[in-house]
Amino acid sequence: MQGTPFSHRLAAVWFADVAGYSARAAKDECGALQLVQLLQALSRETVRRYEGRIVKFVGDAVLAEFPSTALAVQAAAALSRAYLEQSGATGHAHSLTLGVHVGDVAVGWDGDLYGDAVNAAARIREVAEPGQVVASQDVWRQLRGRREFCFKPLGDRSLKGVGPTGLYLTTVEDTRIRSPQNVLQGNESLEETNKRIRSLGVLPFADLSAERDQEYFGDGIAEEILNALAKVGPLHVAARTSSFAFRGTSIDVREIGRRLGVDALLEGSIRKAGKRVRITVQLIDARNGYQLWSHRFDKQIENIFAIQDEIARNVIDALGLSLTQREERRFLKASTKNVEAYEFYLRARKLFQRWTRQNIELARQMFERAIELDSHFAAAWAGLATAYVYLFDWGGGDPDLQKAHNASARALELDPELADAHVAAGQSFSMEQRYSEATAEFDGAIELDPTLFDAYYYYARSCFKAGNLKKALSLFEKAHSVRPEDYQSAALIAAVLRQLGRSDEAHRAEHLAIESINRHLELNVDEARAFNLGAIILARLGDVERAKQWNERAMSLAPDDDAILYNASCVFAVLGEEDQALAGLQRAIEAGLAGGDWVSHDPDWERLRDNPRFQTLVQRLQRS
Fold first, then answer.
1. Distance of CA 206 to the CA centre of its chain
2. CB of 608 within 8 A of CB of 573?
3. Is 338 left (phi over 0), alpha (psi -120 to 50) or beta?
4. pTM for this predicted structure
5. CA distances (Å), 8 to each of 106, 114, 141, 442, in order?
6. What is the helix (H) or strand (E) element at residue 345, kind and residue range?
7. Distance between CA atoms of 462 and 469, rounded to whole angstroms?
8. Mean pLDDT confidence for 88-115
9. Do residues 305 and 332 touch, judged by C-beta distance below 8 A?
10. Are the C-beta atoms of 465 and 601 separated by less than 8 Å?
């Protein structure tokens, strides 16, 4: 790329480096390396939050660029505070030195920055004492009228390669509980502003552990908090599948909030070392990017359940909400005192998110390991029951179904009020076509937890299989109201309406389902099931080429999955390609598809009901 011209722009930049790094490296190379890793992790998180970009890391230093001077200084102050708080985990707390400047920069073809402004920021950083953010006179001129910024003149300093420059020690008023004026209405107080926040996304917690091997733990903690907050009646919480899709992105929090359709975001980081855990969390107003609340927990890992509870309750308090007596009963409960068992449980839950037979089998093993460590761990028993249900659905034999019954029964024996255990029991009864018993279990789950999406969704599927289409429709609609962003319930609402002969309503529902699937695929670009169900709807809507493209995409992502193969055959059936449809149905059966009761009521097979080959395949399914 030699000879490529530079582009120029005005930018706010800062350099930050670790004070005392060289001395630490001479004494403790491992600890020094942890300092660099922490700087990089916190810089990525902080710079993204303040709309900037990391230009480059250079040893123990970082160069960052921002679209405004205010954002640059706010990010510098936030990074300085966070680094001092968290660096103690390396064995000795360290501070950063930061230099901020605004000026013309030259931008290379690779995004690197050059010019006097970059050099000035680097030289200003050299003047800063540990823990200080020092800004140039140009920064001061732009922000001196802003009340949240405080400047203490340091006089003129002669900087190498820059010359005499006026410098200012810069601090930022704590903005964790500030809201910008464009959010406040009239004389509305901060408390009243927060009370207008009624939707929330919980992002996956960043893993800051030295070995970066605790993602499952951070995800598990975030999901437990998400599930607890979802039980609060006035608050809508975005589903994990949507919010966790933003893992590791540099998208601004306001854009994340827009895409999730929420007013606020909870984000955090986790560092686990031995028997101690440090969790830092912050609640951010996604409408403007301002921090509403933040806290750092540094405790023994045995206190993990208390930490989760405290985080969730602090969020509720910050939003001006309160728990009803019923919500209080089903709020976060520690179902084990064995932290090692809990970690295996979280590993299993993480594996559930990657929907393959191999991962479900591994999840089963993790649940069983958790139970070995604590045989009274009801949630682990419920998870084990669900794993066996899925394994049976993947072509497992009767022993898997019996194990599902046994595990769910044990979970309910240990905790009769565990809604997830009732759902697992309901699923296993439904697999055996014992629909009245399944109904009792699903009703029990909903009575215990009216916010539980899985209870409505799997209840609806059970009713569909039983031929109770009107009730299935009602339950799919309820599932969709509990989790409006869920594309599966949206797609199945359309399918049931189609089977009921309500064509106009089905047509409108299909368009809504495609919109939902498109939104989901924006965040989850490789999810076979979304392409799968979308292809069926596109085929019904007459978009043949796109239906075939999505169908091929789904099969390429999960070529051996019986459910994907089944839905792919449905696409061919809707398109009138009968031979391919029947061949696909046969492949799905050979891959482990079970349960002809679903196929019997599936509207996609309407054209083939009288086809002898189709009837033979359905009979084969019903015997499986």
1. 11
2. yes
3. beta
4. 0.67
5. 5, 9, 22, 63
6. helix 339-352
7. 10
8. 84
9. yes
10. yes
